[in-house]
Amino acid sequence: MSDCGTVLVADCEQATRSLIAAEVARLGLACLAVNTSEAALAAVDEDEPALAVIEVELPGLNGLGLLLALHERFEELPVILTSSKHADPVGRAAGLMLGADDYLVKPLDPTELAARMRRSMRRSGRPVGKSPPTDETSHVSSLSPREREILILLAEGNTENQIAAALVLSPRTVATHIQNVLRKLDVHSRAQAVVVAYRDGLVAAVRADTAVETSRS
Fold this sequence. Notes:
2 domains; 5-stranded parallel sheet; about 10% strand; elongated; Rossmann fold
């Protein structure tokens, strides 16, 4: 297995396996993707992966059974369960009680998935591969005043349509600005751009300036 760590993925859907594999590659880790629990157990043998992402609804031995089997071999292995059932609090609770580190409901959001995988590995003291693109090398200084304004509104939780209404712009224009923001910050998602805004102090700085102006008026 990779010296940087290998992520075991067990999911019966090819599209989901491909999505997870892409995010694993972004983290600089190797991916071992299979579609059954039996294939997963055969693949890892005695080589402990850095993380396992397992679908609960696997055919044959389901994801909960695979979780238990993996923990019999690798007691400290972090495991993230995924499920297509949107309203299954019992199943979610059972998975966590059986030792899962986290639980995600499909369809998976790539940015959230990457963040959860990184967090699970950090919790277990395992290497997490590459640093995310929202690191200290990312700065908002390259943004235009309009792009900074849109990023601030994004960071404050506004939707694309809300930003368009607030700035009297078309949604298409806002979408174009957002794509420019992602490109200039070298990030892959809006969530990562929001992280940059907070890490670089853009949101806090603007709120502070607003507070000063308010106190002067």
